[in-house]
Amino acid sequence: MPIGVLLGLLSFSIYAVGDAITKGLAGQVGVFQIQFFVNLFALLPIVFAKGEAERWRDTFRLANPLLMHARALLYTVATLCFTFAVTTIPFAETYSLAFLAPLFLALLAVIVLREQVVAARWIFIALSFVGVLIVVRPGFRELGAGHLAAVMCALLAAAANTILRIVSTSEKQISIIAMNGAYQLVVCGALMLPGFTAMDGWQLGRLAIIGIMGGFAQILIIRAVARTPASHIGPTQYVQILWAVALGALFFNETPDLVGYLGLALLVAAGISTVFSDGAQARILGRWSEFRARRGEPQPPIEGPDL
């Protein structure tokens, strides 16, 4: 198994464990307070994220300041929505709704980036959406604010990732991470003050664990993508669904019924098929481009897969 895939599996597993610890803080610490301290501790591993050619003093020298500020704000609100969802609704339902992000990302790619999305990708995305509907089953039971927050998380995260695709080639890696952290600290710090709750050492310790784990998980993903094609890393994020089912059952007495399991299975299968179909398309286009080059014909641009 490629090292990048292993790093991806490890990274998303760390995220899932951190989310489970966050869920355990429900009712003890407010959402804004959780996010502030998690991001404060997440700054500790940032020293490992700086590229060799990057300088600390250039961290906030941005090539696209407006887009970078917009992305950081969208990402901040998305994480707040996710934290609220994971502390109010079942673990598996939070993840299934958050995995609507690829659907929103594909729509934004067409509308904003003017990209072409092949029919096979739309089919797999539609199947993913059906899987989410089977898990959540709107109309058959009451849905709450947590479900809406999870959907908003998916939409805002897709918007943030759309901007990331625009700025990723011109902005420094450390700048992207630092801008997110700065916005999280400022926004969540201001919002947590009216309802600030004194914490004991165990609660603060859990927030430190979540933050440090999340910081290292983000670095692992960066390292994974640098070593292995993105089409191979994409499916590793679906390990979070497995963690959600296992951790939800072990610690929160949350066990999906048979229909829920079928919906989760459809969501995972369609999601993985989407990424692999993108990778196959890129390989076919690459080989066709090589063939045309050997014949001396003009070569069309090759687009990489979307995560």
Structural notes for this entry:
The protein has 307 residues and is mostly helical. It is built from 12 helices and no strands. It has helices spanning 3-24, 31-42, 65-86, 91-98, 101-111, 119-136, 145-167, 173-192, 201-227, 230-233, 239-251, 258-294. α2 packs across α3 (65-86) and α3 packs across α8 (173-192). Residues 282-307 have low confidence and may be disordered.
Give average pLDDT, whole number: 83
Biggest sheet record: none
**Radius of gyration from CA coordinates:** 20 Å
State the helical fraction.
Answer: over 70%
Low-pLDDT regions: 282-307
Coarse structural class: mainly alpha
Order of helices and strands: HHHHHHHHHHHH
- Per the principal axes of the C-alpha atoms, what is the gross shape? globular
Calculate the terminal CA-CA distance, rounded to whole Å.
Answer: 20 Å
Supply the number of helical segments: 12
The strand count comes to 0
Beta-strand residue fraction: under 5%
